[in-house]
Amino acid sequence: MNNKLIILWGVIIFGLVLSIYIIGVNKINSKEYDDLKDTIRLAVDNYLSDNDLWPVNTITVNTSELINYNYLNELYYEGSKCSAVVTVTNTGNKYKYEYDITCVYE
Q1: Do 29 and 78 contact (CB within 8 A), yes or no?
Q2: DSSP string, 89-101
Q3: What pTM was estimated for this model as a whole?
Q4: CA distance 58 to 89
Q5: Which of 11, 30, 39, 106 has the most CB atoms lying inside 10 A of its own CB?
């Protein structure tokens, strides 16, 4: 093999390894974010059930309210403190959740 072909294969292998690493890191971050949303959703569900607040149309719940009533602990994502506003909408046969999550990076 000549040197150009060896260098080309080295670049290809390096590119593949780097791509796999980046995809893996993104999947981990995506899972952490999904876990954060699941934690918030569980707290919202418990809060709405305990207080019989399930919406006929739409209701908005702030995580600070959930924390005040002990349905949720402080939220952290990637080492940053987060808060969220969750809008729960009754679609007729199920509830739709929309999350507006804000994290303060220091």
Answers
A1: yes
A2: EE-SSSEEEEEEE
A3: 0.72
A4: 4
A5: 39
